[in-house]
Amino acid sequence: EKFASESLQDKKAQIDSKLCSVLARTTGACLGPMAAVIGGIAGQEVLKAVSGKFTPIKQHLYFSAAKCLPPDTAKDLSTYATKGDSRYDDYVATFGKAVQEKISKMKLFIVGAGAIGCEMLKNCATMGISTQPPGQIVVTDMDAIERSNLNRQFLFRPKDVGSLKSEAASASVMQINSSLRITPHSHRVGEDSENIYNGAFWNNLDLVITALDNVQARLYLDNRCIYFSKPMFDSGTLGTKGNTQVVLPRLTESYGSSQDPPEESIPLCTLHNFPYKIEHTIQWARDKFGGLFKVAPEEVNSYLTDPNHLEKVAGDATTELKTLELLKASLGGDKPLSFEDCIGWARRTFEDEFHNKILQLITALPPDQVDAEGNPFWTGHKRPPAPLKFSPDDPLHIEFILAAANLRAHVYGLKGSSDRKFVKTEASKVKLSEFQPDKSKKVAKTDEEMKTMMEQELHGLDQKIESLKSSLPKPSSLTGYRLTPLDFEKDDPTNFHIDFVTACSNLRAANYKIKPASKHQTKQIAGKIIPAIATTTALVAGLVCLEVYKLVQEMPIEAYSNTYANLAIAHVTGSEPMPPAKNAVRLKGDKKFEFSLWDRMEVKLGPQATLQQLKDHFEEKYGLEIVMLSYGKALLFSQYGFMAKKKNKVRLKLAMPELVETVAKVKVDRAAAFLMFEAMVTTVEGDDVDIPSVRFWMTPADESC
C-alpha cells in the first residue's frame, strides 16, 4: 500500500497541466486531416486483412501532430471557446479562432485534381479553407475523367466520365461545403500559360499545393515559387509508398535542390533491335514521336531563323549528319502541301519502320544465326522479328496512318481529318517500290558494337554532308515559314499523341510477337504513371494539410516535417526540412553578403531608371561592375567583344522596361511588381563574383534599396 501510494505521488508530480488542458479541449474533436491520416493507415490494414498481402501492424499505433497546435495554447482559453453552432467548432477548439480565421481567408493554387487533388479538396472543404473573402482556391487540371479513375478519385461518379476533372471535383466538393470559394481551370501549368498564371496571379497567392504525376511539372512550379517567393507543399505516391515535402521561402531548400537518382535506362541495342517487353516498344514509340514531331520541326525552325545554325552543329559529324537528314526529310520532297500528302508520308513511314527495317535486320541476322561458339543467336530474350505487310483492312494499321498523318498535318499547319474511310482509301493508293535488303550490312548486337560502328561510319562522311547541305532550300526562299513542334501530352484524348504511341508500339510489338497494350496501359507506361491507392493518397493529403496549420501560424522550420511512408510495412518517418544552402560574397567596404536561392539583389530605382543608372547603382552601393545582363534568354548588355559598342551606347540610355521590350521582343506589363534579371559582375579588381538574381522593382524609387 505504501509503495502504491508513493508511485501515485510520483505520477501526480509528472502530470503536465498544459498537456491536460489541451487534451481536455481537443479530445472530442474530429479533424479532417487527422482523420485522413489515421483513416489511410487503418484502411490499408483492412486491405491487408482481406488480401493477406503486406505486413500488418502488430503493435500499438502512435501518431502525433502536436506541433500543429498554437504554442501559447494555455494563455487565453477564450479563443478556443465554441458555441456548438458551427461546423468548424472542432477546429476552433483545437487551434483557436484566430487560426481558423486565417484558414478561411487563404488563397490557394492546387495543381492537379486527380487522386491526391481530390483528397486535398475534400480536406479543404472540411477544414474551411477559403470560405471567406478574400479567400480563393484555384484548381487546374486539363485531364478528363476516365472510368478507371472512379476507384480512387472519390469525388467523381459514373455520370462524370468524360467531364473535366477540375470542374467535376469543384462541383462535388461544393456539395461537401457550399461556402467554399473555388474556381476550376483546365490549363496546363507551364510557359504557355504564363499569360494566365501571371505575376498578378502569383503575387496574390498564399500557398501552392501540387497534386501532380510528373517531375517536370513539379520543377516548373518549384521555379515559379522561388521566383515569386511563395511556399509550396508537394506530395506524391507510388503504390503503398508516399512522401510529402514542404518548401518555404528562405527557410527550406527547394524541391529541385535535391533529386532522385536517374532511372535505369533501357540499352539502346534492346530498343533498336531486340525488344522483348511492351515497355521497350512503348519507349521506342515515344522516341519516334519526339524525333518526328518535336526534334525535326525544332531543327527546321532553327535552320530558318538562325543563319549560323549549321555552323553550330558542325562540330560533331554524327550530329551534323543527323541534323541535315532531318532538314532534308522535312523541307525536301516529303514536305506536305495537303492532308493527302501527310497520309502518303505516314504510309511510307509504316513501310520503312515495320517492314523494311525488320527485313533488313533478319537478313543480317537470320533466324538460324549462330554466334562464334556455335550457339543460337536468337535465344533467351532475343526474339527474331517478322516484317508486317500493310493491310488497309487491319484497324491497327489504319490507326497508325490516321494518327501519324494528323500529327504531320499539325506540324505543317495543315487541316487534318478523323475520317477513317478517307484515310483508308488514300493509304491504299500509295505506290511503293519493292524493298531489297542489303546483305552486306551489319547490325549491332550490343551497345558497344553500336558505338564502334557509328565511329567507323564517320569516315568518308564529308562528301555526304556537303551533298545534303547543297540540296537544302535557302532560308531566304522560305521567309516566314515555320513548323509547329509538338510536346507529348498524354492527357488530351483528341490530339492523336497517345493514339500514335499506342499504334506505333503495338505494331512493333507485332513484329516481335510481344503482347500488345491497350491505350490506357500505354498511357500509364508512356507517362510513367503508377495507379494511386486511395489509402496512400488519403495519408499524404492529410499530412500536407496538417502542415497548413503550421504555415498560417508562421512557425519556425523545426516545427515542419517532411514525411516518407510505406503502408505496406507500416513505416512512417518524419524529418525536419533541410535549410537552403548559403553562399557568401564580400561587397564594398568588406561587407559580407550571404544569400540562398531565395534571396535577390533588390533594386528600387523606379521604372524609369536606365541601364546606366542600374550599373552606377551596383558600383556605388556594392562595389560591383555589371559586365553582362540578361532577361530570360535575351542578352541585354555585354561589355565583351561580341556585342558592338554602338549597341551598348544606345541601350545604356534606355529605361529598363523599354530595354527589355526592345531586346527581348516581349511586352512588359507596366502593372507588374518587378522584373527579374541575371547579372554577371566583377569586383573593382576584376574578379568574378557570384550574386543572386536581380529583382528590379517597378514601383516608385526607394533610395534605401
Structure characterization notes:
A hairpin with a 4-residue loop joins strand 14 and strand 15. Strands 3-2-1-4-5-6-7-8 form an 8-stranded mixed beta sheet, sandwiched between helices. Strands 11, 12, 13, 14, 15 and 16 form a 6-stranded mixed beta sheet that branches. The chain has helices at about 1-15, 15-25, 30-50, 90-95, 95-105, 115-125, 165-175, 200-205, 215-230, 270, 280-305, 310, 315-330, 340-365, 395-410, 420-430, 445-455, 460-470, 495-510, 520-525, 535-550, 610-620, 645-650, 655-665, and strands spanning about 105-110, 135-140, 180-185, 205-210, 230-240, 240-245, 560-565, 570-575, 585, 590-595, 600-605, 625-630, 635-640, 675-685, 690, 695. It is an alpha/beta fold. The model has no long low-confidence stretch (mean pLDDT about 90). It contains 24 helices and 16 strands. The radius of gyration is 31 Å and the shape is globular.
